[in-house]
Amino acid sequence: MATNLEDRKERLGAFAATFGLPIVCYLAAFLCNDVSGCPVPSTLHPRSLTLAKLRNEAGWPQDGLQGLASFRVTGYVLAYYLSSLVLQAALPGLVVQGVKLRSGGRLEYKFNGTYLQGPDFALWTFIWDNYVQLITVNLGIAFFLATFVYCRSFSVKAGNKHKRELAAGGHSGNIIYDFFIGRELNPRITVPVIGTIDIKAFCELRPGMLGWVLLDLAFVVHQYKLYGFVSDSIILITLFQSLYVFDALWMEPAVLSTMDITTDGFGFMLAFGDLVWLPFIYSLQARYLAVYPVQLGLVGIAGVLAVQGFGYWIFRSSNNEKNRFRTDPDDPRIAHLNFMKTKSGRKLLTSGWWGFSRHPNYLGDWIMAWSYCLPTAIAGYVVRHGDMVDGQGFVSGGLVKQQVLQGEAKGWGMVITYFYVFYFAVLLIHREMRDEEACKRKYGDDWEEYKKKCEVPKELLPAAAGEGCGKTADSNRIQRRGLQKRLSSA
Questions:
Q1: Which residue intervals of 228-359 are DSSP H helices?
Q2: Helix, strand, coil percentages, rounded to 5, for the chain
Q3: Which helix (H) or strand (E) holds 81?
Q4: How many CB atoms lie within 10 A of CB 20?
Q5: Exposed, middle or buried by CB within 10 Å (0-12, 13-18, 19+), for 331?
Q6: Cα 392 to Cα 119, 120, 204, 303, 381, distances in angstroms
Q7: What does the alpha-carbon distance between residue 194 and residue 197 come to, in Å, rounded to a whole number?
Q8: How far is Cα 286 from Cα 373, in angstroms, rounded to an integer?
């Protein structure tokens, strides 16, 4: 009975995520805008709220649902994806073998993120003016990829020469759940001229991550065009997030040991997370600051830098420690670490960062998340197109002048600009629970014995960091991608 209840919950959750989260992306685009404010003023007065008024303030397309998409924008986005594929195939790179598959053998991956990546997009105004349409195109691509790999997964045969296999938890028999979680572990296609493309690895590290930086840069340019200056807050956020993406591309072979690659199938969860949720939700702070600049000053900058630096130090040093232990246990930088050997022959770290917590990288990741939100300060603004209030807010240049000030929206915008840090906490707690269950299944009694060896009080760590201490040496770091994802390398 309990098992059936859990199955129903999983299926309901998969259904809600598949059809509900795309709506969240549109809500974030419409309810925080440069037309009326963030949040839109009418939401602050629900008694007088009307659909017509909400449409007007949200900037709903004049041609209705048709306006959510555009053939022209679709063409440009497809060209962006194609150029990324061509560059990945044409540029020099490192060929790396993935972890050993359950069916035997290893898949090869080509990485060239440390070389020139992506085309040089100069039309920043195109991104700003077609923001909603860009969401629609990428959402359509995510649904297409999820549908394609789902249908194609039924051609996987045991012992095939191409090393194709199904994900352990991806073929439950429930269509919605399997479509969401992904049936095939490493779906690949062969494209003429380009060669073999690993769809999951490509989506993990290419269009969404680079798109995130492109969106941030477009927002920086938009702020400059509106006000003639670039605020220190948007510079900090763009630098932090660009560093995050660069870090992931620089350390990209480490993605091969993550749960996304080794365990999860490629379905709507990863397709949507990589291509839609990541670039459009993670760039919300920069989009907000493009319309309402915040000047932090030296003290504010120092505070935000301290948060970012502290989080990044924990995140990167703990991930490096794990990867060095896994790939070269004799490395003098980690040779002194203690470990426990399991019956399966694998080793579990019991000292260093992974002796402090089973998820030190999660903790560092979450701390860094605050540095992306804090520069927006006490968020919220209203856009005035008519009567101006002297000495308040910002007045944009150009032929059509508008005033942006906080007014009654002050504080309410934090629901949007600080959404990421709270969402991320829930995400990490859920991932920690998944990790715990996976380790119980993988190591059995060894895992219980291992936890007894590491008795760090839970009170020393945030819930998102996990309870106890230590982590599998081959465990994955979380990737900052939607649904279950994070964006950097481990």
A1: 232-250, 259-262, 268-272, 278-282, 284-291, 297-327, 353-356
A2: 60, 10, 35
A3: helix 71-90
A4: 10
A5: middle
A6: 40, 37, 43, 26, 11
A7: 8
A8: 9
Each residue's pLDDT expressed in tens, for the chain with a length of 490 residues: 556 777 888 889 899 999 999 999 999 999 999 889 999 999 999 898 999 999 999 999 988 999 999 999 999 899 888 888 887 777 656 777 887 887 888 888 777 654 433 333 456 888 898 999 999 999 999 999 999 999 999 988 888 888 888 888 778 888 999 999 898 888 998 888 778 888 998 898 889 999 999 999 999 988 988 888 999 999 999 998 998 888 888 878 777 777 778 888 899 999 999 999 999 999 999 999 999 999 999 999 999 999 989 998 998 888 888 878 877 888 888 888 888 888 877 888 778 887 777 788 888 989 989 999 999 999 999 988 766 666 666 776 655 578 888 889 999 999 999 999 999 899 888 888 877 777 887 788 888 887 776 654 333 343 333 333 334 333 333 333 433 343 333 3
**447 membership: H or E segment, kind and range:** helix 445-453
The phi-psi region of residue 483 (left if phi > 0; otherwise alpha if psi is between -120 and 50; otherwise beta) is left
Q: Give the tokens for residue 135.
A: 């969401």
356 SS3 class: helix
CA atoms within 13 A on the CB side of 359: 28
Per-residue DSSP letter, 273: I
As a whole number of angstroms, the distance between CA 182 and CA 198 comes to 14
Query: Do residues 62 and 52 make contact, with C-beta atoms less than 8 angstroms apart?
Result: no
Q: Which amino acid is at 457?
A: P
Both ends of the chain: CA-CA distance in Å?
A: 39
Distances (CA, A) of 96 to 246, 347, 438: 19, 23, 26
> Residue 230 in 3-state DSSP?
coil
Q: How many CB atoms lie within 10 A of CB 64?
A: 9
Residues 6+ apart with CB under 8 A from 463: 425, 429
Nearest to 134 by CA among 219, 56, 201: 219
Which pair of structure tokens corresponds to residue 468? 């106890």
Question: Is 0.85 surpassed by the pTM of this model?
Answer: no
CB 432 within 8 A of CB 466: yes
CB atoms within 10 A of CB 84: 19
Q: Look up residue 193 and give its amino acid.
A: V
In what order do the strands lie in the sheet containing 471-472? 339-341, 347-349, 471-472
